[in-house]
Design brief:
Length: 100
């Protein structure tokens, strides 16, 4: 791998940490008894700004993996994207339990 490939991989890893850190910040905010706003609420599930931005990052990583489908790094970006997507979906599911 060239130095360009390594730099792309490092940027992808930094982007993959985005949804996880956003959800962590949201949990820390809730732990301090500060309310987190909900952008959209559907059947009791709430989409917070943290989850929405994490979802944008996850979709962007999946789209980048589609654009890089000829390069071996595309698969890594797909894994990063789906990992972020799973973290965001778990947080949205957790928002229904917190509302009770």
């Amino acid at each position: 791998m060239t130095s360009d490939h390594w730099m792309i991989l490092l940027m992808g890893m930094a982007l993959a940490c985005g949804p996880i850190l956003l959800i962590w910040f949201e949990d820390k905010t809730r732990a301090r008894n500060v309310t987190v706003p909900v952008l959209v609420s559907l059947k009791g599930y709430g989409l917070s700004p943290h989850s929405a931005f994490g979802l944008v990052i996850a979709v962007m990583l999946i789209y980048l993996s589609y654009l890089m489908r000829g390069v071996g790094l595309g698969f890594v970006f797909m894994i990063f994207g789906f990992l972020g997507f799973i973290v965001v979906v778990q947080n949205i599911r957790k928002s229904k339990m917190l509302a009770r």
